[in-house]
Request: fold
Amino acid sequence: GKMTSNRQWIYASRPDGEVTESNYKLATVDVPKPKEGEVLIKGLYWSVDPYHRIQQSSLNTWEKPHPLNEVQGAGMIGEVIESQANSFSKGDIVSVYGGWQEYVVKPASDVKSLKAIADASVPISYGLGILGMPGRTAYFGLFDVGKPKEGETVVVSGAAGAVGSIVIQLAKIKGCHVVGIAGDDQKLEWVKSLGADVTINYKNHDNQESMRQALQQACPKGIDVYFDNVGGHITDAVFDLINLRARIIICGQISQYNHGLDTPQLGPRFLHKILYTRAIIQGILARDYVDRIDEMLKVDFNLNQSS
Reply:
């Protein structure tokens, strides 16, 4: 039928702890019309990402908190329905920060063509995954900041997540000893199938000491690279086992998102361990690597073809 209405998820109230349905409301509005230089896009895939919860903190993060009573911001892959811009035509598959809604109008400059992915024989949803923001985060976080060398030990927390599961594979391709941490046995089976040498179920280790023992067993040569998606006591334990000049990549702190952003949990003092090991701790954000996405796609597509 003819498209006349656009359904949207509106971010209505700040969550206290876990996000619930009451933090959102469903609205129906008219489909917007593109003006000169703009395109109308129909959403096909949307992202639901952990960083959305960071944006719901009451404090500034890398930006101000997500405004209330607006469409929830998110990545979208969609199809151009109508174009008033020379750079796009009807039917093009594109990526856009379109939010949780069925249709969006954006200036052409905010829209990225996914022609390379649409033409390759891979699902276009990969544009929100391994060939999109999570892929970029994993690839540049691990290689630019982590700089893993063959034979080194790489530990990944949140190993079954969108980013962590890619880091596991990349570290394995590099010839590293790879340890994946996740929260249930089914996830760990999958992480093993991606190439992890050892997996740890953190739910069996609910404190720093127990976690340290599990890591010590998994990492007989210590830890050279730690790709952190979760923070909390898992990360506290890692600092006991880092090697000289270890690289610690802070990609996420998901154990803290529901309760610990506005009133932080207290952890052990660990910076003296950084002094002894001269380790580096660096935060990473996907947006810092947007301009280098083609560098990654070249390598990714080559890997895909050769495997």
